[in-house]
Design a protein that fits this description.
Blueprint: H1 11-16, E1 22-23, H2 25-31, H3 36-45, E2 49-52, E3 55-59, H4 60-68
Helix pairs in contact: 2-3
InterPro entries: DUF6462 (IPR045591)
Protein name: DNA-binding protein
Pfam families: DUF6462
Length: 73
């Protein structure tokens, strides 16, 4: 039996204020306005993926740092 995941209200605000540092793949894709597979690839390249038993969590701080490297000034 799988549990249905619920959408987190005000996800961007929670991450921005530091109340939620880790997100799941689906939440991260929604947060960064990316497709699921693209977000998974970015998270892996940024070494931001943590496996806790059967749950995959992504550190948003590491993803932010990784994306800042692509900034065109």
């Amino acid at each position: 039996m799988s549990k249905a995941r619920t959408e987190v209200a005000q996800l961007e605000n929670m991450v921005g204020t530091g109340k939620k540092k880790f997100v799941r793949y689906a939440e991260g894709a929604q947060l960064y306005s990316l497709g699921l597979h693209t977000f998974q690839e970015i998270a892996k390249e940024a070494n931001a993926v943590y496996r806790v038993k059967r749950c995959i969590l992504v550190n948003t701080e590491k993803v932010d740092e990784y994306l800042e490297n692509f900034c065109e000034a």
